[in-house]
Each structure stands twice: as structure tokens, then as C-alpha cells.
Amino acid sequence: MSSTNRWGIAAAGFLMQMALGAVYAWSVFRIPLTKQFHWTISQVTLTFTICVFVLGVSAFFGGLWLNKKGPRVVALTGGFLYGLGVFLASYSADKLWWLYLSYGLIGGIGLGFGYIVPIAVLVKWFPDRRGLITGIAVAGFGAGALVTAPAATRLIQSVGVLHTFAYLGIAYLVITMATGYFMQNPPDGWKPAGWVPSTTQTKQRAATDFTLGGALKTWQWWALWALLFLNTSAGISIISQESPMFQEIAKVSAVVAAGMVGVASIGNAVGRIFWAWISDAITRRWTFVTMFLVQIGLFLIFPGTSSAAILTVLAFVILMCYGGGFGTMPAFAADYFGSKNVGPIYGLMLTAWGSASAFGPLLIAHMRQSSGSYASGLHVIAGIMAVSVLLPILVSPPKSVTAKVARSSPVVPAMHSK
Questions:
Q1: b/e code 78-106 from CB counts within 10 Å (16+ = b)
Q2: Per the domain annotation, does 405 fall within a domain?
Q3: Is position 267 within any domain?
């Protein structure tokens, strides 16, 4: 298959991820839902938490499934479930449990199945641009709120929050299933014509493909899991409260805050490509060191900033770092454990995303509820970032002797041992 075709698959993957990434616009639903149904901030935030937690778990099973049945089946199933879940959320009037079941559980399963497919597919199509392409593969996910936040806000104002879920669910289903149809793996042994790995690429990459069981036996897999968890916890705490946080700190209207959410979401998308591209040059580990250092300062000054413009810039950069974790980590995992089984290996690693969604958003929501402001929660996250800097400095590639053991390790026993 030609390089033109692989870029066509990359474009389809980007658009699919953009529809899936609309979940990042959740904060625009928070105030309408709390006002209309008198639910608390924490209750509404839990919907987003459930959705992303389930995403992390289902991405692992999606990774296993696509290794057996191929990426197209998983992508189409994921797109259908995601659209269905959001649509069914339109029937959750005064039924919080139904919102959790539809948007949270069903939508989250669809998100996980859909999210892992473009990553697993494109890392195989682009061994020559592994960092860049994994950044592009998930950049669409980060950009999803750019379109959805302002569109959903206007829909809420014109037709109400529940009808908005119905319209968006139908749109998501159509887009994700149409683009998911194009997801396919390259032939076995395929590589770009004339491409030879550089010395730097060879040093950063595993000499063989690890099985899932083999990867789980290395401390490096758990270190990468922790890196993703820590970086995600910081950024997702902002994402989950963005619109009301902007309204409270900068004293702006819901419409203006929605626009700020949209602009900040560009940072999520840009960061996925920018940091992934940077990681090809300075290595994945030093990319994470840099992102953690940047976030320490940003979280410290965030609550004391009253200017809407400056606050938007700060959120933009924080979300660049947040997105950078997702742009860089698939390549990190493929470097350390090979690309053959990156679907299940990175899919299971995405449980860090789900775990972070149960930590970051609930932490910030609880501290806002108890203290009456966002300042204390944001300062705690700055402290977490300061401690986190040590981990990427310490991490190193698995040794070749470990790779030889991993090559013959069965998957099932390692999964049971976990």
C-alpha cells in the first residue's frame, strides 16, 4: 500500500478521534444539569469520571479484540456504542442513574473501543514517524471540544440540555462509524520503501516485540502507567471543571466561558502533536520531565489570575501538557515493548487514564465544594507535579535479556497475576 493511502487512513483516524474527543466538552453540561435537576457538582462530575474510567478499561479489551478480529470491527462497534450512549442520555431527566448508565457506561465503552484503534493501526503504518504519528492519531481527540463546546452551549440554550444529548449522539454515531470503516492494519512485515531506522531510533526501541504478559513482568510498564496517571490527573482536573472554573475565576458568562473552553481545547490537540514531535528529538522521558516542570508553575498561578485572556493562555498550556502525555505515551510504549502488541499493551496502560479520571476531577470538585474556591485544589495538584518529576528521570528501557524472557511469556498467567 502506498504512503498516500496510509496518510488517508491517518486522516480518517484523526476525524474519528475528533468525534470521540467531544467528551472533553463535558464541562458545558455541568451548570445546566445542576440547575435543571438540582444535582450537586460532584454528582454531575461523576458522569464524566465514570465515562473516562470505563474508557480506560474498555480500551484494553478493545486492544485484545482488534488483535483477533481486526481494527475495523472494533472501530465500528465503538462508534455505535458511543453515539448510542450519548443519545440515550437524553432520557435521563431526574434520573441520575440513567445518566451514569447511558453517557457514563455505554458511552465510555464505545469511547474505549474507538480510541485504541487509530493508535494501534497508525503506529504500525508509520514506524518511520512513530512519535509524530501517535501525536496526530490522538490530536483529534484533544480538538473535539473545540467544535463541541460552543455548539453544545448554543444547542442547550435553544433546545435544552436533554435534546442536545440526542442531537449530538446521532452526529457522533454517523461520524465515528463512517471513519471507523477505513481502519485497517498494514500487511505483515510492511515498512515504508527505503526506510532504515536511525541510530537514535534503534537505541530507543526494543529489540523484539513483547507480549502483554512479558510487558507486565517489567517494572518499566508500571512506571509508564504511573507517568500517564500523574500527567492525566493534573490536566483532567481542569477539563472536568473548565467552564464553571472560568466563570468563577474570570467572572465571565457561560457563553464566553464556552469559547474559552474551545480555545483551551486547541492546546490539548496541539500538545499531542507538539510534544510527540519533540519526544522524537529529546526522548520520551525528558519530554515528560519538561511537561511536569511547566505544570508546577502554571497550577500555582492559575487561581490568582483574573484576566480571561491570560487564564485562557494558562489553560491552553496546561492542556498542551495534558495532551502531550497522550501523544507521547503510545510511542513510549511501542519503543519499550514493540509495535506488534501495542494495542493490548497500551490499551491496558490506559487504565491509568480511567484511574486519573477518578482522582483528578473528584479531587478538584470536592475541594471546590468544601473550601468554596478552586485555589486549594489547584495548589495541591502543583505539589503532585513537583513530586512527579522524579519518575521520568529514573525510568529506562527494558534490558535485552528481559525481552528474551518476555518473548516466550504467556499472556494469561500474567493477567491473572495482576
A1: bbbbbbbbbbbbbebeeebebbbbbbbbb
A2: yes
A3: yes
Question: What is the pLDDT, as a whole number, of residue 280?
Answer: 83
Q: Which domain holds residue 117?
A: 10-185+202-411
Nearest alpha-carbon partner for 291 in 395, 200, 201, 386: 386
Q: Write the pLDDT tens digit of every residue in 222-233.
A: 999 999 999 999
Domain annotation covers residue 277:
yes
Per-residue HEC secondary structure of the chain comes to CCHHHHHHHHHHHHHHHHHHHHHHHCHHHHHHHHHHHCCCHHHHHHHHHHHHHHHHHHHHHHHHHHHHHCHHHHHHHHHHHHHHHHHHHHHCCCCHHHHHHHHHHHHHHHHHHHHHHHHHHHHHHCHHHHHHHHHHHHHHHHHHHHHHHHHHHHHHHHHCHHHHHHHHHHHHHHHHHHHHCCCCCCCCCCCCCCCCCCHHHHHHCCCCCCCHHHHHCCHHHHHHHHHHHHHHHHHHHHHHHHHHHHHHHHCCCHHHHHHHHHHHHHHHHHHHHHHHHHHHHHCHHHHHHHHHHHHHHHHHHHHHCCCHHHHHHHHHHHHHHHHHHHHHHHHHHHHHHCCCCHHHHHHHHCHHHHHHHCCHHHHHHHHHHHHCCCHHHHHHHHHHHHHHCHHHHHCCCCCHHHHHHHHCCCHHHHHHHC
Q: Which residue has the cell 529489540?
A: 207
Give Cα separations from 194 to 1, 123, 199, 241 (angstroms). 14, 18, 16, 48
Residue 167 pLDDT > 70, yes or no?
A: yes
User: How many independent structural domains does the chain possess?
Assistant: 1
Question: Mean pLDDT in the chain?
Answer: 86
Is residue 206's pLDDT more than 80?
Answer: no
pLDDT, tens digit, 9 for 90 and up, residues 111-134: 999 999 998 898 888 877 778 888
What would the pLDDT profile of 328-372 be if each residue is shown by its tens digit? 998 899 888 987 888 889 989 988 987 887 788 888 888 887 888
How far is CA 33 from its chain centroid?
24
Measured CA distances, 392 to 67, 275, 289, 399, 418 (Å): 30, 15, 6, 17, 23
Domain of 32: which CATH number? Answer: 1.20.1250.20
pTM of the model: 0.76
